[in-house]
Description:
The structure holds two protein chains of two kinds.
Chain A lengths: L22 E3 L3 E8 L8 E8 L7 E6 L7 H7 L10 E9 L4 E9 L19 H22 L11 E3 L7 E3 L18 H4 L11 H17 L9 H11 L1 H6 L6 H10 L10 H8 L19 E3 L2 E3 L2 H10 L1 H9 L2 H8 L4 H16 L4 H16 L5 E3 L2 E3 L4 H10 L5 H8 L6 H5 L6 H14 L7 H9 L21 H12 L9 H10 L5 H7 L4 H19 L5 H15 L5 H17 L2 H8 L2 H67 L1
Antiparallel strand pairs in A: 1-2, 2-3, 3-4, 4-6, 5-6, 7-8, 9-10, 11-12
Helix pairs in contact in A: 2-4, 2-8, 4-7, 9-10, 9-13, 10-13, 11-12, 12-13, 14-18, 17-18, 18-20, 19-23, 21-22, 22-25, 23-24, 24-25
Chain B lengths: L7 H26 L4 H10 L1 H9 L7 H21 L5 H9 L1 H51 L16
Helix pairs in contact in B: 2-4, 2-5, 3-4, 4-6
Amino acid sequence: MADExxxxxxxxxxxxAASGQPGILRDRYTIQSAHPIYxxxxxxxxxxxxxxxxEPNRRLFALVxxxxxxxxxxxxxxxxxxxxxxxxxxxxxxPTAWPLAGRQCMTLIYEMPLGKRVMSxxxxxxxxxxxxxxxxxxxxxxVAVLKEFSAKGVTHRAIRPTNLFFMDDRGDRIALGDCAASxxxxxxxxxxxxxxxxxxxxxARGTGSEADDMYSLGATLAVxxxxxxxxxxxxxxxxxxxxxxxxxxxxIVGDNRMPLAIVELLxxxxxxxxxxxxxxxxxxxxxxxxxxxxxxxxxEKRAARAFPFxxxxxxxxxxxxxxxxxxxxxxxxxxxxxxxxxxxRRAVEDKEKAEAVADQVRMAVTATTEKDAAEHVMLARVLMxxxxxxxxxxxxxxxxxxxxxxxxxxMMAKQMDTKLLVEMIRRDVFKNYYEVQGAQREDPLVENNFxxxxxxxxxxxxxxxxxxxxxxxxxxxxxxxPLVGESYVVDIKELxxxxxxxxxxxxxxxxxxxxxxxxxxxxARARSDVDRNLAAVNxxxxxxxxxxxxxxxxxxxxxxxxxxxxxLAGWVAKLASTMVExxxxxEKRKEFETILPKMAKRGSVVEIYQLxxxxxxxxxxxxxxxxxxAQYMAAEEAIKRIESQEEDVxxxxxxxxxxxxxxxxxxxxxxxxxxxxxxxxx
Amino acid sequence: xxKKPQPKEDKKGAAxxxxxxxxxxxxxxxxxxxxxxxxxxxVLAAGMLPTLGAYFSEKGDDRYAFLCVGGLNIAALVPYxxxxxxxxxxxxxxxxxxxxxxxxxxxxxxASAGWIIYKAMPPIISGWLKMNTHKRINGxxxxxxxxxxxxxxxxxxxxLQAPPTKK
Lengths: 682, 167
């Protein structure tokens, strides 16, 4: 049921307890943590009263994003300061030390709406907007906003009545609310999303396009014109099925009467074919009074004979694909039986598609390994063929390729089971997606990216695995490691200062300045290829692994600075002392013990690395040690030899003594004879 | 026809026979000299009695006492013999010398000194050798200790004990 509330706080993410300390953004904006505004909070960001120190009279509020949720930083950059009647102005944004979370959180400062939301809840009924009123108060301001968005290449993806605010007391000015604090389309109920996006899991809708915003605007205008949401009693599945069967206009507007001009507007905006849907320029023309023929979307070719599946009959590939996606296991059996191929060949008369389906079935049947997995991948690809515009669907999970990143981030932040997403990446479900999309959405870059991520995710060491996929797929996601402490680290150059801050207070020799998140963050954000270094960090030899890590940290400090990081250097020096123990020479150890603290004080990881990275020194130490061992052994053997020979020597000493005495006697005798001869002769 | 190998005992017997012949030749020569140097022989016979005693007092292969005692014994007699050879070489002079207590005193005292040297030398040599051995062992132990100080106990190969340290 489409009854999501914008103000509802997600229970799975803990809401921090109130604290009196404020957060400060850019030394100018004070965010009052003690004054939450529950009415302005969104599903993934909490609202608080904010003050501008330079302009105290300015009424502002702050949205503080939850940890682990990727914000749309590119959108923030684009819309900051943008001043339009139809857009709640984003005054400032950036990470703020947030006392309630105990770390830095992404914070957005918005102008405070003086009124309430146009609809507080989708269940609410509101006074109907009149034809002239909706054009002036809603469509005109929105056109200006969406034109600017289109020109800047960004999308809003949060256009719905519950995200429209009365910005003044009188309710004249209506503006769109936040669209950057959380991933695109994540809070959107299925009714406000075009069919492909509605088929997606809300976490995995991706950034979308201008056409998606136009559709959401059309659905929003319909609700404002009717004064309520006509589909409020339907669940998302029914809404989607009705949209597929009867079209979006018929599903949302239903039997409600509309002025002719509005019918034309809504048909243009709610057209299910994105190519035929009104663009913002056409909408602008409508605002200026030019009337156009209502759009009649092209109908998909209907089959001559319906395809029976699970008690219902389907005449188009798109409807059948949606039914298959809903009843996954039953669909696999049906497709494997070959019924689908026959139906495509005979009833739809699409031989090309029938052949492609037959190929996929053949591959699944002949798979020698992981037969079960091959069948699931087969169905996912068959669904792509049946409905090329639909998202990738796999075991009931629908996702746009560009939405996988946000889905992974939110699921990891909420500690949800990511097995399905990992399975999708590992089994290369994304292959063929752009191929079946045709020229419309060809994006080989994304496809190659997924191929790389598949390789990375299959490796389990530091710097790879799920965490690597998380950062590869979310450019704007901050590093989720606890080792960066309170810092909000989005760019690689912010990593070392974060580690430095943490190391100043917590760094110890038992913990390396690197965990799975940091290694994956480095792998994804480093501009150079560091995969070889990361592989070395996983070396079984701990000293080699540590040297590889120090090498990376030293390179980052050398390239990105800052020059002095005593916290990190001290931490690294403690780790290095464990490496110094690897040296056998005590003299060398003493030398290191003297030098390392000095280098740590200077804050240079580079110097510490250079000191330790001396292969000659290490080799010399090993050789000298081996030599010393040999010396010791030789001395030991010599001692044993001398001790064993001592008895023999002592036993022969008596004879030697006698011999010496004899020689002495003879020598004395000869000496005396010589002297006497000399005396007598001379 | 192959010659029969000579028994070893025959060889030894031949060597002993040869030694015996040599000794006989030496004794014969000495006896032949006696008529021409009877005074000298008289002095030597009386003066060298300790040497003769030393020769016969020892048994076994290691008989070196007569050399040590003899060396010193002859050293004491030589000045008197030279006095005779360059002076009066007569039986009277020999008799006169033999009755001179000084000559006999010198001869027998120097022989005694020879005996003292002969008896004292083995323990001295033994002590010196023992001291030398211990000095070498201590030197090697010190070298081992230095290696342990420089490289740590890891330098001691497995199965060996660290060298004892001096308290």
